[in-house]
Amino acid sequence: MENLIRLRQLMSQKSIDGLAIVPGPNLSYLTGSEFHLSERPVILFVRQNDAVFVLPELESPKIADLDVDFISYDDRDGPEPAFAQFSKNHKFSGLGVESRLIRHLELNLISSYNISSDIIDATDLFAELRMSKSKLEIGHMTKAVETAERSLVSVLDKMRPGVTEKQFAAELVIQLLQNGSDTRLPFSPIVASGVNAANPHHFPTDKEFKEGELVIVDWGATHEGYFSDITRTYAIGNQIDEKLLRAYEAVRLANQAGRSKAVVGVPAGDVDSTTRKVIEDHGFGEFFTHRTGHGLGLEIHEEPYIKPDNDFVLQKGMTFTIEPGIYIPGLGGIRIEDDVYLKTSGLVSMTSLPRELIIV
After folding, report:
1. If I label 348, which of 40, 227, 249, 294 is the partner at 20 to 30 A Cα–Cα?
2. What is the rounded distance in angstroms from the CA atom of residue 321 to the CA atom of residue 112?
3. Taking the model in full, what pTM does it have?
4. How far apart are CA 225 and CA 296, in angstroms?
5. Taking the domains of the chain in order of start, what are their residue ranges?
6. The CATH number of 3-130 is which of 3.30.390.10, 3.40.350.10, 3.40.50.880, 3.30.450.20?
7. Residue 71: which of 97, 90, 93 has the closest Cα?
8. Confidence (pLDDT) at 1
9. Beta bridge partners of 330
């Protein structure tokens, strides 16, 4: 648990007495183990001089090699006695929690046994801990990108009239797993054809691909817990609506401009405004309905967020997406998404698939 040292330094800087960490990316980052967020609560309590798990007895083998104390409980007695025991020697004046993950279940146990007098949102602390990736982490993400790209290329020949969005998505998932992705995929692939592509987060349906349509494919793979998240847009046949072709070129140029702008020392909001201006200058500004990108790593969406007016300054080692898009109701849509990281010398794109429109 080497990352505990950095975590405690941040706790000291932010005057946080203790942390309550539940199953999810932060717990995996600290322990190297996966825990389920289930009806059996698991919490790692961290303060400057100790770290204590409260967890089900059946999960205790996962922490056998960790330098932590623990209090376990069984299904007969439930978690209450364990939290009561923990509370006897552990009181916090301020307890930081993961506001996007912790549930009423855990908060109620903390409150019921007076473990802390104050609950603090520690989201920013964990973001600061994990935003800048090590070479090892970037290596894992690069592998996840390679797996995802190889998998899509292997099924592109199935993107043809008569095949449904669901069928294509299923073939892609099979290839992701066969090509070595961890079984926990970042998300279920988005496959959106024709008018469905006007919905940025469309779920695949039984709609069949047709000649003259654009198809958005948004997918990813996982390697050692780290995610990739890629989007490409393809054309079925060469009779694509002229407005969509102009929109495609606007998105391609916006993606290019965003990747050029994103360097160490630039505010994230400036990257967003750069891509947005390209799309606006091409007359499609009203159809770009989401942020330019998001952080990527152990979570599919994490800090930093490449969004309007975000003055957060990008730093070395940060990994995120550049993914401008245009979505025209009743006609279709386009998105081109790359996974990138920052070096002192500039931006590196982990994704390598062509960004030009490919006809399949």
Report:
1. 249
2. 42
3. 0.95
4. 12
5. 3-130, 135-359
6. 3.40.350.10
7. 90
8. 67
9. none
